[in-house]
Amino acid sequence: MKALAILMLMTGMALAGEWVNLWPGEAPGAKRPPAGTEEVKGGWRFSQIEVPQYILFKPKNANGTGVVVFPGGGYGGLAADHEGKQVGEWFAERGVTAVVVKYRVGKAELGYHFPVPYMDARRAIRTMRAKAGELGVDPGKVGVMGFSAGGHLTSMCATMFEEKYAEETSDVIDAVSCRPDFAILCYPVIAMGERYCHSGSVKNLLGPNPTKEALARCNTALRVTEKTPPIFIVHSADDGAVPLRNGTEFAARCAEKKVPVNAAIFSQGGHGYGLAGRGDSAGWPVRLEEWLIGRKLAERGEEWGMGREHPMSNKECPISKGQLAASAVDFDHDRDGHAAF
Question: What single-letter DSSP state applies at residue 290?
Answer without folding.
Answer: H
